[in-house]
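Could you show me just one protein sequence together with its fold in C-alpha coordinate form as a worked example?
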Amino acid sequence: MDADLAPADVSPSRSRPARPSLAHIPGDRGWPIIGHTLQALADPMAFAAQRAARYGPIYRRHMFGEEGISLLGPEANELVLFDTTRSFSSAGGWGRMLDRLFPRGLMLLDFDEHRLHRRALSVAFKAGPMRAYRVALNRGIATALDRWGEAPGAMRFYPAIKSLTLDLAATAFLGAGEVAETEALQRAFIDMVAASIAVVRWPLPGTVMARGVRGRAVVAAYFAARVPERRAGAGDDLFSHLCRATYDDGRPLPVADIVNHMSFFMMAAHDTLTSSLSSLIYFLARHPEWQARLRDEAGRVAGTEGMLDEAGLDALTETEMAFKEALRLHPPVPALPRRAVRDIEFRGVSIPAGTVVSVDPLFTHHMPEIWDAPEHFEPRRFTEAASAARHRFAFVPFGGGAHMCLGLHFAYLQAKCFAWHFLRRYRVTLPAGEPAPWRMWPIPKPVDGLPVHLARL
Protein backbone atom coordinates (compact mmCIF):
# COMPACT_ATOMS: atom_id res chain seq x y z
CA MET A 1 0.00 0.00 0.00
CA ASP A 2 1.25 3.55 -0.75
CA ALA A 3 3.04 5.19 2.18
CA ASP A 4 0.48 8.01 2.15
CA LEU A 5 -2.26 5.49 2.95
CA ALA A 6 -1.82 4.75 6.63
CA PRO A 7 -3.78 1.80 8.03
CA ALA A 8 -5.88 4.23 10.07
CA ASP A 9 -7.15 5.61 6.78
CA VAL A 10 -8.79 2.27 5.99
CA SER A 11 -9.97 1.40 9.50
CA PRO A 12 -10.13 4.59 11.59
CA SER A 13 -10.50 4.87 15.33
CA ARG A 14 -13.99 4.17 16.63
CA SER A 15 -13.76 6.46 19.64
CA ARG A 16 -17.18 7.37 20.98
CA PRO A 17 -18.05 10.87 22.26
CA ALA A 18 -19.64 11.40 25.65
CA ARG A 19 -23.40 10.97 25.34
CA PRO A 20 -25.50 13.83 26.65
CA SER A 21 -28.78 13.36 28.48
CA LEU A 22 -31.78 13.81 26.18
CA ALA A 23 -34.48 12.93 28.71
CA HIS A 24 -36.03 16.41 28.36
CA ILE A 25 -36.86 15.75 24.68
CA PRO A 26 -40.07 13.80 23.84
CA GLY A 27 -39.52 10.27 22.59
CA ASP A 28 -38.39 6.81 23.67
CA ARG A 29 -35.55 4.33 23.18
CA GLY A 30 -37.46 1.61 21.33
CA TRP A 31 -36.36 -2.03 21.56
CA PRO A 32 -33.42 -3.05 23.76
CA ILE A 33 -30.05 -2.72 22.00
CA ILE A 34 -31.41 -2.18 18.45
CA GLY A 35 -33.71 0.70 19.42
CA HIS A 36 -35.66 1.93 16.39
CA THR A 37 -33.04 0.91 13.80
CA LEU A 38 -34.99 -1.85 12.03
CA GLN A 39 -38.29 0.04 12.14
CA ALA A 40 -36.76 3.19 10.66
CA LEU A 41 -34.84 1.33 7.95
CA ALA A 42 -37.93 -0.63 6.90
CA ASP A 43 -40.08 2.47 6.28
CA PRO A 44 -38.38 5.77 7.18
CA MET A 45 -41.31 7.90 6.02
CA ALA A 46 -43.87 6.01 8.12
CA PHE A 47 -41.50 6.00 11.09
CA ALA A 48 -40.99 9.78 10.94
CA ALA A 49 -44.71 10.44 10.41
CA GLN A 50 -45.68 8.27 13.37
CA ARG A 51 -43.12 9.90 15.63
CA ALA A 52 -44.11 13.39 14.51
CA ALA A 53 -47.80 12.66 15.17
CA ARG A 54 -46.98 11.37 18.65
CA TYR A 55 -44.18 13.70 19.78
CA GLY A 56 -44.13 16.67 17.41
CA PRO A 57 -41.42 17.89 15.01
CA ILE A 58 -38.59 17.45 17.57
CA TYR A 59 -38.30 13.95 18.98
CA ARG A 60 -35.83 11.51 20.50
CA ARG A 61 -35.02 8.13 18.91
CA HIS A 62 -32.41 5.38 19.24
CA MET A 63 -30.63 4.10 16.12
CA PHE A 64 -27.37 2.33 15.29
CA GLY A 65 -26.56 1.99 18.98
CA GLU A 66 -26.95 5.66 19.92
CA GLU A 67 -29.73 7.91 21.12
CA GLY A 68 -30.24 11.09 19.13
CA ILE A 69 -32.93 13.47 17.95
CA SER A 70 -34.74 14.25 14.70
CA LEU A 71 -35.74 17.76 13.66
CA LEU A 72 -38.45 17.99 11.00
CA GLY A 73 -39.40 20.70 8.51
CA PRO A 74 -37.71 23.38 6.40
CA GLU A 75 -36.76 25.60 9.36
CA ALA A 76 -34.95 22.66 10.94
CA ASN A 77 -33.22 21.97 7.61
CA GLU A 78 -32.04 25.56 7.48
CA LEU A 79 -30.77 25.51 11.07
CA VAL A 80 -28.74 22.35 10.63
CA LEU A 81 -27.65 22.54 6.98
CA PHE A 82 -27.02 26.26 6.61
CA ASP A 83 -25.43 26.26 10.09
CA THR A 84 -24.38 29.89 10.34
CA THR A 85 -23.00 29.33 13.86
CA ARG A 86 -20.93 26.25 12.96
CA SER A 87 -22.79 24.22 15.55
CA PHE A 88 -23.18 20.93 13.64
CA SER A 89 -20.48 18.53 12.50
CA SER A 90 -21.13 16.51 9.36
CA ALA A 91 -18.21 14.21 10.18
CA GLY A 92 -19.69 13.59 13.62
CA GLY A 93 -23.06 12.72 12.09
CA TRP A 94 -21.97 10.48 9.24
CA GLY A 95 -18.88 9.01 10.88
CA ARG A 96 -20.55 6.05 12.59
CA MET A 97 -21.91 4.87 9.24
CA LEU A 98 -19.15 5.86 6.85
CA ASP A 99 -15.77 6.31 8.50
CA ARG A 100 -14.67 2.68 8.01
CA LEU A 101 -15.82 2.73 4.39
CA PHE A 102 -15.47 6.25 2.99
CA PRO A 103 -13.02 7.84 5.45
CA ARG A 104 -12.40 11.57 5.11
CA GLY A 105 -14.56 11.97 2.04
CA LEU A 106 -15.84 15.51 1.61
CA MET A 107 -18.95 14.74 3.68
CA LEU A 108 -16.70 13.63 6.55
CA LEU A 109 -14.80 16.91 6.86
CA ASP A 110 -15.90 20.02 8.72
CA PHE A 111 -15.59 23.79 8.76
CA ASP A 112 -12.20 25.21 7.67
CA GLU A 113 -10.78 21.83 6.65
CA HIS A 114 -13.91 21.09 4.61
CA ARG A 115 -13.72 24.50 2.93
CA LEU A 116 -10.04 23.95 2.06
CA HIS A 117 -10.71 20.57 0.46
CA ARG A 118 -13.90 21.68 -1.27
CA ARG A 119 -12.11 24.60 -2.90
CA ALA A 120 -9.35 22.30 -4.18
CA LEU A 121 -11.86 19.76 -5.48
CA SER A 122 -14.06 22.34 -7.19
CA VAL A 123 -11.57 22.50 -10.08
CA ALA A 124 -13.04 19.20 -11.29
CA PHE A 125 -16.50 20.76 -11.70
CA LYS A 126 -15.62 23.96 -13.51
CA ALA A 127 -16.80 24.78 -17.03
CA GLY A 128 -13.98 23.09 -18.95
CA PRO A 129 -14.16 19.70 -17.21
CA MET A 130 -17.97 19.79 -17.30
CA ARG A 131 -17.86 20.18 -21.10
CA ALA A 132 -15.61 17.12 -21.29
CA TYR A 133 -17.98 15.16 -19.04
CA ARG A 134 -20.93 16.16 -21.24
CA VAL A 135 -19.22 14.75 -24.34
CA ALA A 136 -18.33 11.52 -22.52
CA LEU A 137 -21.83 11.15 -21.06
CA ASN A 138 -23.52 11.69 -24.43
CA ARG A 139 -21.41 9.01 -26.08
CA GLY A 140 -21.75 6.53 -23.25
CA ILE A 141 -25.51 6.94 -22.92
CA ALA A 142 -26.19 6.76 -26.66
CA THR A 143 -24.08 3.61 -27.05
CA ALA A 144 -25.70 1.87 -24.09
CA LEU A 145 -29.26 2.74 -25.08
CA ASP A 146 -28.69 1.45 -28.61
CA ARG A 147 -27.59 -1.85 -27.06
CA TRP A 148 -30.77 -1.92 -24.98
CA GLY A 149 -32.69 -1.76 -28.24
CA GLU A 150 -31.06 -4.94 -29.53
CA ALA A 151 -33.36 -6.91 -27.23
CA PRO A 152 -36.47 -4.75 -26.90
CA GLY A 153 -39.31 -5.63 -24.58
CA ALA A 154 -39.30 -6.45 -20.89
CA MET A 155 -36.25 -5.61 -18.79
CA ARG A 156 -35.37 -4.73 -15.21
CA PHE A 157 -34.47 -1.09 -15.32
CA TYR A 158 -32.64 -0.72 -12.00
CA PRO A 159 -29.78 -3.18 -12.62
CA ALA A 160 -29.46 -1.92 -16.19
CA ILE A 161 -29.13 1.71 -15.16
CA LYS A 162 -26.85 0.72 -12.25
CA SER A 163 -24.44 -0.86 -14.71
CA LEU A 164 -24.69 2.15 -17.00
CA THR A 165 -24.13 4.76 -14.27
CA LEU A 166 -20.98 2.95 -13.14
CA ASP A 167 -19.72 2.89 -16.73
CA LEU A 168 -20.56 6.58 -17.06
CA ALA A 169 -18.86 7.44 -13.78
CA ALA A 170 -15.82 5.46 -14.88
CA THR A 171 -15.76 7.27 -18.25
CA ALA A 172 -16.24 10.79 -16.87
CA PHE A 173 -14.29 10.33 -13.65
CA LEU A 174 -11.55 7.86 -14.65
CA GLY A 175 -11.24 8.18 -18.44
CA ALA A 176 -12.55 6.00 -21.25
CA GLY A 177 -9.64 3.55 -21.05
CA GLU A 178 -10.60 2.46 -17.54
CA VAL A 179 -14.18 1.34 -18.20
CA ALA A 180 -13.32 -2.29 -18.87
CA GLU A 181 -11.42 -2.53 -15.57
CA THR A 182 -14.25 -1.53 -13.22
CA GLU A 183 -16.07 -4.82 -12.52
CA ALA A 184 -14.16 -5.31 -9.25
CA LEU A 185 -14.89 -1.70 -8.33
CA GLN A 186 -18.61 -2.21 -8.90
CA ARG A 187 -18.71 -5.16 -6.51
CA ALA A 188 -16.60 -3.25 -4.01
CA PHE A 189 -18.87 -0.19 -4.08
CA ILE A 190 -21.98 -2.36 -3.67
CA ASP A 191 -20.43 -4.00 -0.60
CA MET A 192 -19.32 -0.64 0.84
CA VAL A 193 -22.77 0.94 0.53
CA ALA A 194 -24.48 -2.13 2.01
CA ALA A 195 -22.08 -2.06 4.96
CA SER A 196 -22.85 1.61 5.66
CA ILE A 197 -26.15 0.61 7.31
CA ALA A 198 -25.12 -2.80 8.67
CA VAL A 199 -26.50 -3.45 12.13
CA VAL A 200 -23.21 -5.14 13.14
CA ARG A 201 -20.71 -2.27 12.96
CA TRP A 202 -17.50 -4.32 13.38
CA PRO A 203 -15.92 -6.26 10.49
CA LEU A 204 -16.38 -9.67 12.06
CA PRO A 205 -15.81 -12.65 9.71
CA GLY A 206 -18.76 -13.31 7.45
CA THR A 207 -20.51 -10.00 8.18
CA VAL A 208 -21.71 -7.34 5.77
CA MET A 209 -19.25 -4.93 7.39
CA ALA A 210 -16.35 -7.31 6.72
CA ARG A 211 -17.27 -7.38 3.02
CA GLY A 212 -17.52 -3.59 3.02
CA VAL A 213 -14.07 -3.18 4.56
CA ARG A 214 -12.60 -5.57 1.99
CA GLY A 215 -14.29 -3.54 -0.73
CA ARG A 216 -12.73 -0.39 0.70
CA ALA A 217 -9.28 -1.98 0.45
CA VAL A 218 -9.89 -2.87 -3.22
CA VAL A 219 -10.98 0.68 -4.04
CA ALA A 220 -8.11 2.30 -2.12
CA ALA A 221 -5.50 0.14 -3.85
CA TYR A 222 -7.04 0.79 -7.27
CA PHE A 223 -6.87 4.57 -6.99
CA ALA A 224 -3.57 4.82 -5.10
CA ALA A 225 -1.73 2.80 -7.76
CA ARG A 226 -2.82 5.21 -10.50
CA VAL A 227 -2.10 8.59 -8.89
CA PRO A 228 1.51 9.08 -10.15
CA GLU A 229 0.69 8.58 -13.83
CA ARG A 230 -2.39 10.83 -13.57
CA ARG A 231 -0.36 13.61 -11.95
CA ALA A 232 2.08 13.48 -14.83
CA GLY A 233 -0.62 13.42 -17.51
CA ALA A 234 -3.08 15.93 -18.95
CA GLY A 235 -6.31 13.95 -18.79
CA ASP A 236 -9.71 15.66 -18.74
CA ASP A 237 -11.35 13.14 -16.40
CA LEU A 238 -12.18 13.97 -12.79
CA PHE A 239 -9.50 11.66 -11.36
CA SER A 240 -6.80 13.40 -13.37
CA HIS A 241 -8.05 16.83 -12.28
CA LEU A 242 -7.96 15.77 -8.63
CA CYS A 243 -4.46 14.33 -8.99
CA ARG A 244 -3.29 17.72 -10.29
CA ALA A 245 -5.35 19.78 -7.83
CA THR A 246 -3.61 21.88 -5.21
CA TYR A 247 -4.50 23.64 -1.99
CA ASP A 248 -4.44 27.44 -1.83
CA ASP A 249 -0.72 27.41 -0.96
CA GLY A 250 0.14 25.32 -4.01
CA ARG A 251 0.62 21.98 -2.23
CA PRO A 252 -0.74 18.99 -4.18
CA LEU A 253 -3.41 16.84 -2.55
CA PRO A 254 -1.82 13.86 -0.76
CA VAL A 255 -2.45 10.43 -2.25
CA ALA A 256 -4.64 9.51 0.73
CA ASP A 257 -6.90 12.52 0.17
CA ILE A 258 -7.23 11.77 -3.55
CA VAL A 259 -8.15 8.15 -2.79
CA ASN A 260 -10.70 9.18 -0.18
CA HIS A 261 -12.34 11.80 -2.39
CA MET A 262 -12.45 9.57 -5.46
CA SER A 263 -14.00 6.75 -3.42
CA PHE A 264 -16.69 9.09 -2.18
CA PHE A 265 -17.35 10.72 -5.57
CA MET A 266 -17.65 7.38 -7.34
CA MET A 267 -20.10 6.12 -4.73
CA ALA A 268 -22.17 9.29 -4.90
CA ALA A 269 -22.19 9.50 -8.69
CA HIS A 270 -22.97 5.81 -9.07
CA ASP A 271 -25.52 4.96 -6.41
CA THR A 272 -27.41 8.23 -6.03
CA LEU A 273 -27.76 8.68 -9.79
CA THR A 274 -28.85 5.07 -10.20
CA SER A 275 -31.60 5.76 -7.67
CA SER A 276 -32.57 9.15 -9.11
CA LEU A 277 -32.76 8.02 -12.74
CA SER A 278 -34.74 4.95 -11.70
CA SER A 279 -37.18 7.23 -9.88
CA LEU A 280 -37.53 9.48 -12.92
CA ILE A 281 -38.29 6.59 -15.27
CA TYR A 282 -40.63 5.00 -12.72
CA PHE A 283 -42.73 8.15 -12.45
CA LEU A 284 -42.70 8.80 -16.20
CA ALA A 285 -43.91 5.24 -16.80
CA ARG A 286 -46.70 5.78 -14.26
CA HIS A 287 -47.62 9.15 -15.80
CA PRO A 288 -47.62 8.76 -19.59
CA GLU A 289 -48.92 12.30 -20.06
CA TRP A 290 -45.67 13.66 -18.59
CA GLN A 291 -43.63 11.12 -20.52
CA ALA A 292 -45.23 12.44 -23.71
CA ARG A 293 -44.56 16.08 -22.72
CA LEU A 294 -40.89 15.40 -22.07
CA ARG A 295 -40.60 13.42 -25.31
CA ASP A 296 -42.06 16.38 -27.19
CA GLU A 297 -39.58 18.68 -25.46
CA ALA A 298 -36.70 16.34 -26.31
CA GLY A 299 -37.87 16.28 -29.92
CA ARG A 300 -37.76 20.08 -30.08
CA VAL A 301 -34.14 20.14 -28.88
CA ALA A 302 -32.10 19.14 -31.91
CA GLY A 303 -28.68 18.83 -30.31
CA THR A 304 -25.48 18.65 -32.36
CA GLU A 305 -24.67 15.57 -34.44
CA GLY A 306 -26.99 13.43 -32.35
CA MET A 307 -25.61 14.68 -29.04
CA LEU A 308 -27.15 17.02 -26.47
CA ASP A 309 -25.20 20.28 -26.48
CA GLU A 310 -25.00 23.09 -23.92
CA ALA A 311 -27.87 25.04 -25.50
CA GLY A 312 -30.01 21.91 -25.40
CA LEU A 313 -29.28 21.38 -21.72
CA ASP A 314 -30.64 24.84 -20.95
CA ALA A 315 -33.71 24.24 -23.15
CA LEU A 316 -34.86 21.08 -21.28
CA THR A 317 -36.81 23.02 -18.67
CA GLU A 318 -39.69 20.56 -18.25
CA THR A 319 -37.23 17.67 -18.05
CA GLU A 320 -35.46 19.45 -15.21
CA MET A 321 -38.77 20.04 -13.42
CA ALA A 322 -39.69 16.35 -13.76
CA PHE A 323 -36.29 15.30 -12.42
CA LYS A 324 -36.70 17.61 -9.44
CA GLU A 325 -40.14 16.17 -8.75
CA ALA A 326 -38.69 12.64 -8.82
CA LEU A 327 -36.02 13.84 -6.34
CA ARG A 328 -38.73 15.32 -4.15
CA LEU A 329 -40.67 12.07 -3.97
CA HIS A 330 -37.56 9.88 -3.64
CA PRO A 331 -34.70 12.03 -2.30
CA PRO A 332 -31.45 10.12 -2.86
CA VAL A 333 -30.40 10.67 0.77
CA PRO A 334 -33.58 10.41 2.87
CA ALA A 335 -32.01 11.67 6.13
CA LEU A 336 -28.97 13.85 6.89
CA PRO A 337 -27.22 13.33 10.25
CA ARG A 338 -25.01 15.80 12.10
CA ARG A 339 -23.54 15.99 15.60
CA ALA A 340 -23.92 19.14 17.69
CA VAL A 341 -20.50 20.53 18.68
CA ARG A 342 -21.94 23.07 21.12
CA ASP A 343 -25.13 23.60 23.08
CA ILE A 344 -27.83 25.13 20.91
CA GLU A 345 -31.54 25.87 21.20
CA PHE A 346 -34.24 25.37 18.57
CA ARG A 347 -37.88 26.25 19.11
CA GLY A 348 -37.31 26.43 22.84
CA VAL A 349 -35.72 22.97 23.02
CA SER A 350 -32.17 22.69 24.33
CA ILE A 351 -29.90 20.52 22.18
CA PRO A 352 -26.78 19.56 24.19
CA ALA A 353 -23.32 19.40 22.65
CA GLY A 354 -22.53 15.86 21.49
CA THR A 355 -26.09 15.06 20.37
CA VAL A 356 -26.62 13.27 17.05
CA VAL A 357 -29.14 15.43 15.17
CA SER A 358 -30.86 14.31 11.96
CA VAL A 359 -32.93 16.32 9.53
CA ASP A 360 -35.25 14.48 7.19
CA PRO A 361 -35.53 15.51 3.50
CA LEU A 362 -37.93 12.62 2.84
CA PHE A 363 -40.37 13.88 5.47
CA THR A 364 -40.01 17.53 4.45
CA HIS A 365 -40.61 16.66 0.79
CA HIS A 366 -43.97 15.09 1.72
CA MET A 367 -45.30 17.70 4.14
CA PRO A 368 -48.86 18.64 3.06
CA GLU A 369 -48.35 22.10 4.60
CA ILE A 370 -45.76 22.72 1.85
CA TRP A 371 -46.77 20.48 -1.03
CA ASP A 372 -50.37 20.15 -2.20
CA ALA A 373 -51.24 16.44 -2.65
CA PRO A 374 -47.64 15.52 -1.78
CA GLU A 375 -47.85 11.90 -3.00
CA HIS A 376 -48.84 13.00 -6.51
CA PHE A 377 -46.24 13.42 -9.26
CA GLU A 378 -46.57 17.04 -10.41
CA PRO A 379 -43.44 18.59 -12.01
CA ARG A 380 -45.11 22.02 -12.27
CA ARG A 381 -44.31 22.45 -8.58
CA PHE A 382 -40.90 23.49 -9.86
CA THR A 383 -41.78 26.37 -12.11
CA GLU A 384 -39.73 29.41 -11.25
CA ALA A 385 -42.69 31.14 -9.60
CA ALA A 386 -43.75 28.11 -7.55
CA SER A 387 -40.20 27.51 -6.31
CA ALA A 388 -39.75 31.15 -5.31
CA ALA A 389 -42.88 31.00 -3.16
CA ARG A 390 -41.58 28.15 -0.97
CA HIS A 391 -39.14 28.14 1.91
CA ARG A 392 -35.67 27.80 0.43
CA PHE A 393 -35.00 24.69 2.55
CA ALA A 394 -38.27 22.96 1.67
CA PHE A 395 -36.51 21.09 -1.18
CA VAL A 396 -33.13 19.68 -0.15
CA PRO A 397 -32.31 16.55 -2.21
CA PHE A 398 -28.67 17.66 -2.40
CA GLY A 399 -28.37 18.98 1.15
CA GLY A 400 -27.61 22.64 1.68
CA GLY A 401 -25.18 25.18 3.04
CA ALA A 402 -21.44 24.46 3.05
CA HIS A 403 -22.10 20.75 2.43
CA MET A 404 -24.38 21.24 -0.59
CA CYS A 405 -23.48 18.41 -2.97
CA LEU A 406 -20.45 19.49 -5.00
CA GLY A 407 -21.60 17.33 -7.91
CA LEU A 408 -25.19 18.53 -8.18
CA HIS A 409 -24.62 20.15 -11.59
CA PHE A 410 -23.08 16.88 -12.78
CA ALA A 411 -26.23 15.11 -11.59
CA TYR A 412 -28.50 17.45 -13.57
CA LEU A 413 -26.21 17.15 -16.59
CA GLN A 414 -26.38 13.35 -16.52
CA ALA A 415 -30.13 13.24 -15.85
CA LYS A 416 -30.92 15.57 -18.77
CA CYS A 417 -28.57 13.73 -21.12
CA PHE A 418 -30.10 10.39 -20.20
CA ALA A 419 -33.71 11.60 -20.50
CA TRP A 420 -33.03 13.27 -23.86
CA HIS A 421 -31.48 10.14 -25.39
CA PHE A 422 -33.88 7.70 -23.73
CA LEU A 423 -37.16 9.43 -24.60
CA ARG A 424 -36.15 9.94 -28.22
CA ARG A 425 -35.61 6.17 -28.53
CA TYR A 426 -38.20 4.49 -26.29
CA ARG A 427 -41.66 4.57 -24.83
CA VAL A 428 -41.59 3.00 -21.37
CA THR A 429 -44.47 1.31 -19.50
CA LEU A 430 -44.83 -0.69 -16.29
CA PRO A 431 -46.28 -4.21 -16.10
CA ALA A 432 -49.97 -4.47 -15.31
CA GLY A 433 -50.91 -4.44 -11.65
CA GLU A 434 -49.82 -2.44 -8.63
CA PRO A 435 -46.16 -1.34 -8.78
CA ALA A 436 -43.88 -2.92 -6.19
CA PRO A 437 -42.79 -0.73 -3.26
CA TRP A 438 -39.47 1.02 -2.93
CA ARG A 439 -36.95 0.48 -0.16
CA MET A 440 -35.90 3.97 0.92
CA TRP A 441 -32.75 3.25 2.97
CA PRO A 442 -29.86 3.83 2.58
CA ILE A 443 -30.62 5.07 -0.94
CA PRO A 444 -34.06 4.62 -2.57
CA LYS A 445 -34.30 1.42 -4.59
CA PRO A 446 -37.21 -0.52 -6.19
CA VAL A 447 -37.39 -3.85 -4.39
CA ASP A 448 -38.23 -5.75 -7.62
CA GLY A 449 -35.55 -4.10 -9.75
CA LEU A 450 -38.18 -2.02 -11.57
CA PRO A 451 -39.41 -4.26 -14.42
CA VAL A 452 -40.42 -2.14 -17.42
CA HIS A 453 -41.36 -2.65 -21.05
CA LEU A 454 -39.49 -0.64 -23.67
CA ALA A 455 -41.09 0.03 -27.05
CA ARG A 456 -38.65 1.27 -29.67
CA LEU A 457 -39.78 4.47 -31.41
Q: What stands out?
A: The mean pLDDT is 90. The CA atoms of residues 370 and 390 lie 7 Å apart.
